[in-house]
Amino acid sequence: MTAPPRLRVDLTDVALARDGRPVFEGLSLTLTERRVGVIGRNGAGKSQLSRLIAGLVRPDRGEVRVDGIDVARDRRAAIRSVGILFQNPDHQIIFPTVDEELAFGLTSLGLTRAEARARVTATLARFGRQDWAGRNVQTLSQGQRHLLCLMAVLAMEPATILLDEPFAGLDLATELMLNAILSALPQRLIHVTHDLGALAGYDRVVWLDAGRIVGDGAPAAVIAAYRAEMAERARHAGTEF
């Protein structure tokens, strides 16, 4: 049997509507790069794109595959392959203690409780947070909860990590700390962001507008075109906004 392709995201003729409003109509996109940024105005479809790739949303038409896996239909395989880090950690954390939060995804992968406990211990040690063992999540700061979510994703060892505005609302020190961790990861990152500076050094940037790809390619060129378009729209704010 041929092994599934690696480091490849394929969206094929994807249609998606939310609350009766079309988000995507016939979107096709292939990503093979290790670092990909996704930019665009609010409502452009960026977050829905990340949820489609993570398998959290099923397209109304078309197919989404990550490394050969149909993420909407094969959820067990999808959670092994793709992790997602949301903007608000409180939308992601569901258990009262750090240990339970870290262990949940691991048991979902099929690890025994003993195996999950061992990996939780190793994950806490990796980040120098052994003192968090047994700690109530509510005692963690906002930045610490962001780190906990990242730790939970990394404990599951996915090949792809989706970042949906992960630095929004963080103080500079926490943002720099998390960015340093993410930059050093071997995993593929797909980063949805309004912070254009966060995409420095990325391999590719995709610009979405109203569910359509209007820019795609080298980050410097796409970001420059995006800035110019936003500046032009701002000059015509009275008629376009």
Automatic annotation (TrEMBL):
<protein>
    <submittedName>
        <fullName>ABC transporter ATP-binding protein</fullName>
    </submittedName>
</protein>
<keyword id="KW-0547">Nucleotide-binding</keyword>
<feature type="domain" description="ABC transporter">
    <location>
        <begin position="9"/>
        <end position="235"/>
    </location>
</feature>
<dbReference type="Pfam" id="PF00005">
    <property type="entry name" value="ABC_tran"/>
</dbReference>
<dbReference type="InterPro" id="IPR015856">
    <property type="entry name" value="ABC_transpr_CbiO/EcfA_su"/>
</dbReference>
<keyword id="KW-0813">Transport</keyword>
<dbReference type="InterPro" id="IPR003439">
    <property type="entry name" value="ABC_transporter-like_ATP-bd"/>
</dbReference>
<dbReference type="InterPro" id="IPR027417">
    <property type="entry name" value="P-loop_NTPase"/>
</dbReference>
<dbReference type="InterPro" id="IPR003593">
    <property type="entry name" value="AAA+_ATPase"/>
</dbReference>
<comment type="similarity">
    <text>Belongs to the ABC transporter superfamily.</text>
</comment>
<keyword id="KW-0067">ATP-binding</keyword>
<dbReference type="InterPro" id="IPR050095">
    <property type="entry name" value="ECF_ABC_transporter_ATP-bd"/>
</dbReference>
<dbReference type="GO" id="GO:0005524">
    <property type="term" value="F:ATP binding"/>
</dbReference>
